[in-house]
UniProtKB/TrEMBL annotation:
Residues 50-72 are annotated as: Disordered. InterPro entries: Cell_wall_metabolism_enzyme, Dup_hybrid_motif, LysM, LysM_dom_sf, M23ase_b-sheet_dom. GO terms for molecular function: metalloendopeptidase activity. Residues 290-333 form the LysM domain. Keywords: Signal. It comes from Xanthocytophaga agilis. This is Peptidoglycan DD-metalloendopeptidase family protein. Residues 1-19 form the signal peptide. Gene3D superfamilies: Glucose Permease (Domain IIA), LysM domain. It comes from the Bacteria.
Amino acid sequence: MRFFISFLFTLFCISWALAQEGDKFTKPLNKKAPTEKKDTVKDIPSEIQEAPAKHHPGFDPQRRPTVVSEDTTDIDEGELSVVEVTEEVRVDSSWIKIAEYYSVWDSRNVDPYGIDPKDFDDSVEIQLYDETQSQLWALPLTHTKVNSNFGSRGYRWHYGTDLDLNTGDTIRAAFDGIVRIVRYEAGGWGYFVLLRHYNGLETLYGHMSKQLVEVGQLVKAGDIIGLGGSTGRSSGPHLHYEVRYQGNAFNSDVLYDYMGEKLRQQYFYLLPQHFSYIGQKKSAMVRRLVYYRVRRGDTLGGIASRHGTTVSKLMKLNHLRSKTIRAGQRLRVR
């Protein structure tokens, strides 16, 4: 009997233990909802709490400038933007500025600055080249024979110097800088390139047969930028070469001895007198022509009387051989 009671007690204990073990898999876990942690950097070392400043890339002539913003969705339309472009070189432990561009970047318009040269009343010292910074100069052509000078062309002004060349001759950058415009103008420069230089000047090269650079490209003095031609408004192969300051052209003869194929000096002083031609430009000739439409019953005498002229003048103005006129005829009366 004792054995039987002990057996039942043992069986009960085993059953109870198995039941408790099974509860571990059947009862849902009762976890607390996670509390929102506050941002903290208490455990983060102080030296990595702040992202390090970007390292300045420095001056690399082969590096495509990232500070120039171009709208690549329609590169032909170009873009006008206000930018500050500074190139620096690291000397010892310091960054030294070697070049600073204009604050306006426009890859479409030759003169986006809107500066009236008649307001220029100061002198500006321009260092054309600097051998210590490896910023040199070069002639735009191997030989610089002048075909036509800067100055008046009758009813219009010629803003550049025309240099003789043969189609296909290489055209070179005059100074170190960056390509601002590569375009085509049918009624003027044809295929042309405009460069912006470290020295503050801009140079324009017109009537090319082929352009070999692109907007935003850095160039060194002497780099080939295109081939000579006679595109646009041109009567024969030549290079139309302009030098500009803040969008306004001035006579490049003050910089170059074209016959001697050299620069006149390293330092050039730009003066108000270099823009004095602005007041010398001739105004375009304008005339006013008046026409009369002949009505039924009109005579030359009556028309002449009403317009304060004579029959002979009317016949001469309109190349008439007789006094016979017809309704609807258009006659010039002044």
